[in-house]
Design a protein that fits this description.
about 400 residues, alpha/beta, Rossmann fold, 3 domains, seven-stranded parallel sheet, about 40% helix
């Protein structure tokens, strides 16, 4: 039995985290013993981890480091840890100097990494399940026979410093991404590592989703208009402001719409616009939900107004639940939507373009029903986990994307 370490930034309810749980649920437990290290080990999926995994304890140095800078420095001073004081101050300064961007995270890692030095035991396989810091930890700080890093997003949209990225990930054996489109982008961006790039799609189990979706219908009001759902973090890249603007356009055209935004609110812009346009009855912020699927299953249209995505798990979940999808024209949209067959991709990343496609689905009942019929044949992809297991065992020739 091989010992496998997964490192993940958080156990929140994002797309990567949900795919993480699905992957763990399909992993061969007769072959692999799994430890999980989560930098932020709390969140909605913490209780969804399978019983066979072991969530390992955070090092005391990391717990201290994560405190506010004042508390962290004082704690290090009390312990006589001068190096810890220096690293914490320089980490914060570096993030501030580079405006807390993704490149700032890259540059600050040399101070952050000190809290992990000498902490991890040897593993047969170590996997970072998200880009940036956890990739850097696996590459430089974990002793493992096989090292795997993940990129769940379009690399070009991450605005990373490619020179730093190559240095920080140089010890990874494989760079896993979630779609062929993302793989092509990753190879173009890091050509020296093109031979390491592999595709393992996020696992979607239709059976599991339907079981949760059919628990209850959350829409118990008397509303009989168009019910729209968007699931994902309410943050700039996910386009919640675009959703609000789109709703305003639809309302001005005379459509009765209730749009449910499911996810943690990280960006207040959408809330402000909702008030500005007088849409509090039309835009409902549901917050974080352990079961968004009952909302998706009982809506009329699922909309993804994102500015960019790697491969949207929420779109795949909506398709698996048989709900017609309208999405913005982010880079990888057409890798997920077969135009006019499984949904509609807007002509641009704009409220006007998205409103046009939503209106098309509302008015064209024949098209709407044809899309629903097509989605009845959606195929789950639990066997994607076999590709990951081949990487664990270095038996991956059939999965190369070069």
């Amino acid at each position: 039995m091989k010992n496998v370490l997964f490192i993940i930034p958080t156990l929140g309810n994002g797309g990567a985290e949900k795919s993480f749980v699905s992957m763990l649920g399909n992993l061969n437990t007769d072959k692999y013993k799994v430890d999980i290290f989560a930098i932020r080990p709390t969140g909605l999926i913490a209780d969804m981890l399978p019983d066979y995994v072991n969530l390992i304890q955070l090092p005391e140095r990391l717990v201290d480091f994560k405190l506010s800078i004042k508390q962290s420095v004082l704690k290090s001073l009390k312990k006589g840890d001068v190096r810890g004081v220096f690293n914490r101050i320089m980490y914060t300064y570096t993030l501030w100097k580079h405006h807390k961007t993704n490149e700032a995270e890259q540059r600050a890692f040399k101070y952050y990494k000190k809290v992990f030095e000498g902490y991890f035991e040897h593993y047969d396989v170590a996997v970072s399940y998200l880009e940036k810091t956890t990739n850097y930890i696996v590459s430089g700080l974990v002793d493992a026979d096989v090292k795997i890093g993940y990129y769940h997003s379009d690399y070009n949209k991450l605005n990373l410093n490619s020179g730093l990225e190559k240095k920080l990930t140089e010890n990874l054996d494989y760079l896993v991404t979630v779609s062929e489109n993302c793989a092509d982008i990753l190879k173009e961006s890091l050509p020296e590592y093109a031979g390491k790039v592999r595709v393992v799609e996020n696992i979607i189990s239709r059976k599991t989703l339907l079981e949760q979706a059919k628990e209850e219908n959350p829409f118990i009001d008397s509303f009989n208009g168009i019910r729209i759902v968007t699931a994902g973090r309410v943050s700039h890249e996910k386009g919640p402001d675009i959703a609000v603007e789109t709703c305003r356009i639809l309302k001005e055209k005379g459509y009765s719409v209730k749009w449910h935004l499911i996810g943690k609110v990280d960006d207040q812009t959408a809330l402000s616009l909702t008030e500005k346009y007088g849409l509090p009855e039309n835009i409902i912020f549901e917050g974080l939900l352990t079961n968004p699927y009952k909302f998706m299953y009982n809506c009329d249209i699922y909309v993804q107004p994102s500015r960019f995505e790697g491969k949207s798990i929420a779109i795949e979940e909506a398709k698996a639940l048989g709900i017609p999808v309208v999405t913005s024209a982010f880079t990888t949209a057409f890798s997920q939507i077969d135009q006019n067959k499984t949904g509609l991709v807007a002509d641009a990343i704009s409220p006007e373009a998205i409103a046009e496609k939503i209106e098309m689905l509302i008015k064209d009942k024949v098209l709407y029903e044809e899309i629903k019929r097509n989605l009845e044949t959606y195929q789950s992809n639990e066997d994607e986990v076999l590709k990951l297991e081949k990487l664990f065992d270095k038996e991956d020739d059939l999965n190369e994307t070069n």
